[in-house]
Amino acid sequence: MPALALLTAPAADSLEELRSRVKATAQRRPGVYQFVDEGGGVFYVGKAKDLRARLLSYFSAPWPDSKSAHLIRAAADITWRYQPSEFAALLEELRLIARLRPFSNVRGNRTRRRMVFVKLTGGVAPKLKVADHTADRAARYYGPFQSGWRTADSVRVLSDLLQLRDCAQDRPLRYADQADLFGASEPAACLRHDLGTCLGPCAAKCSGETYRAAVAQAVEFLESRAVAPVDRVLDAMAAASAAQDYERAALWREKLDTLESLFAAVSRLRAATQALSFVYGIRDRTPARRGAGHDDRVYLVHRGLVRTVAPWPRTPIEREAFAAAVERSAALPADGPAAHTAPEMDELLLVMSWFRQHPEEFESTTPLSEWLETQAS
């Protein structure tokens, strides 16, 4: 056994004591669990369809090759909480990770490996880039998209046409309306400004208002609200054709195809998320409790995000409170923002994945308007 194993493995009796407690008390029910270190901090959060089986599997994991073996040997304690269904466990795990941010959890390891996102960074001069994860809480995200290279090409064309920067996030920036504070304008840091594909906020080549307007156009495009700068591409393509410069016209045609592909993708995603608006009712599926209403729940899902979780409303006060939440969501405009923060994107992916893998669960959903009508009758 390697020396590291001797240093990190707890005493055999402590590990066996933990195993005995899990074996004696953990039930075969869905739930979430937390691994706690000696200082009382949570360093790992997990979920299980069968909590007892999942927790016991850690104790039989091969050492030192298995990650599970390392986790259980680092744990001074394990806590867990039962959930009424697998969906409830997934959602609770996601929210616990977002709140506690345990260092042993790897963000996005559930469904992201073949997905990419268009990221609009924060800061005084936001930029567009393609990302394969959504860890930056200061950014906004669009997606997910299946084709990484096609999305990257589309983002490059969109950024060039709107003249958004693509330099390092920490590059010092200043606008033209700040020139009197910093002195005369300096050359731009790269050739993109000279080529007409960047407004040059690194060297006071544009005003803050001009750059913000370009970012707003990018947002409008990614929200599928407006097609600019497609009109610029069409004008350039028509001008090249009129001048019989067919090679240049073909290049502009490629840019048009690239932008149309991205616009179609964001439009499909927008429609898909808008369709994920309903009340999702889950009965407690624990065999011993089924039919007893032990932990039945309703989820208000609006545009793919779980806005409200509540016990199944049985009393007039409970029905009125949940109906008020449904009314608020139903009253929101249909064309709301399509961008998401990192935690929101995590949740959207969870909901999309759940109903894609379990289409039969749509039978437990009710459109918002229909739910309100049912409660009013």
The structure class reads alpha+beta
Tally of separate helices? 13
Series of secondary-structure elements, N-terminal to C-terminal: HHEEHHEHEEEHHHHHEEEHHEH
Q: Which band does the percent of strand residues land in?
A: 5-15%
Q: How can the largest sheet be summarized? A: 4 strands, antiparallel
Structure description:
- There is one protein chain.
- By secondary structure, the protein is α+β, with helices and mostly antiparallel strands.
- The protein folds into 3 domains: 3-100, GIY-YIG endonuclease (3-Layer(aba) Sandwich), CATH 3.40.1440.10; 116-273, no CATH class; 276-376, no CATH class.
- Helix content is 45%, strand content 14%.
- It contains 13 helices and 10 strands.
- The chain has helices at residues 3-8, 12-25, 51-59, 67-74, 86-100, 148-162, 179-182, 208-222, 230-242, 246-275, 316-330, 342-357, 368-376, and strands at residues 31-36, 42-48, 77-82, 116-120, 128-131, 140-145, 278-282, 297-302, 305-311, 365-366.
- The strands form 3 sheets. A 4-stranded antiparallel beta sheet has the order 9-8-7-10.
- Strand 1 and strand 2 (42-48) form a beta hairpin.
- Helix 5 runs antiparallel to helix 12, helix 6 packs across helix 10 and helix 11 runs antiparallel to helix 13.
- The longest helix has 30 residues, at 246-275.
- The termini are far apart.
- Mean pLDDT is 87; it is low at 1-11, 107-112 and 289-293.
